[in-house]
Design brief:
alpha+beta; 3 helices; about 190 residues; three-stranded antiparallel sheet; Jelly Rolls; globular
C-alpha cells in the first residue's frame, strides 16, 4: 500500500477557524449509524472494547461547506466533484480501530480537518500498512489545530490516534469529508 497524503496547516482563515473552534463543543452530537458492523467487529483481533467510531453533527450547513470548498480550492488546488459525507465529528475512541472508507465514485478521497484536541496526546490519525503479522502503523499525522489532511481512500487503512489519552472527555473535534475531487488546472 502506498499512501497519497497531503497535509496543510492553517487550512482555514483565522477568523473562520476561531468561530468554528469557539462553537464546536456546543453542537448537538448524534451517534446514529456510526458503529462498526458485527462482521467488522469480528475482524478486529485486539479490540474487545467499544466499537463506536464517532459522534457527528452533519451534514454541514451550506455556508460552512462553502468555507471548506474554498479552502480545498485555495490550499490543495482541488475541486469537489461529489461529496458523500460532510460532518462535524467528535471522536473519543480509545482503542485503535483501523478501517477503510473507500467507495468508488462516492468516497475516493477524504479530508479530515482538525479543530480541537489535546496536542500532547497526538490526537491525529494513524495510517497502517498490512503485512503477514497484521497491521502496523506506517505513518502518523499529529493533531494540530487548523490542520487539514487529504488522502486517497482506496486501500488506506487509518484510525484516530487517541488511545494514550489520559483526558477521558476531550477526544478530538474535527470535520470529516468523504469526497471525489479533481485537480484544478491553472494556466
Amino acid at each position: 500500500m502506498s499512501i497519497n497524503l497531503t497535509i496543510v496547516d492553517n487550512f482555514l482563515p483565522e477568523k473562520e477557524f476561531n468561530k468554528i473552534y469557539d462553537n464546536i463543543s456546543f453542537l448537538e452530537w448524534s451517534h446514529d449509524s456510526h458503529s462498526l458492523s458485527d462482521e467488522r467487529k469480528r475482524d478486529l483481533d485486539n479490540s474487545p472494547h467499544s466499537y463506536h467510531i464517532w459522534y457527528s453533527n452533519g451534514p454541514l450547513a451550506p455556508k460552512d461547506f462553502l468555507i471548506f470548498t474554498e479552502a480545498l480550492r485555495n490550499k490543495f488546488n482541488k475541486e469537489i466533484v461529489h461529496c458523500e459525507l460532510s460532518s462535524w465529528t467528535w471522536v473519543n475512541t480509545k482503542e485503535p480501530l483501523p478501517h477503510i472508507d473507500y467507495v468508488k465514485d462516492k468516497c475516493e478521497q477524504q479530508l479530515i480537518f482538525y479543530i480541537k484536541s489535546d496536542e500532547r496526546i497526538n490526537g491525529g490519525t494513524a495510517f497502517y500498512r498490512q503485512d503477514k503479522k497484521g497491521n502496523e502503523i506506517d505513518v502518523h499525522v499529529g493533531f494540530k489545530e487548523n490542520r487539514a489532511i487529504l488522502f486517497e481512500s482506496k486501500d488506506c487503512l487509518h484510525t484516530p490516534l487517541l488511545w494514550n489519552s489520559k483526558n477521558k472527555t476531550m477526544g478530538r473535534y474535527s470535520a470529516v469529508f468523504q469526497l471525489v475531487v479533481k485537480d484544478i488546472h491553472t494556466l
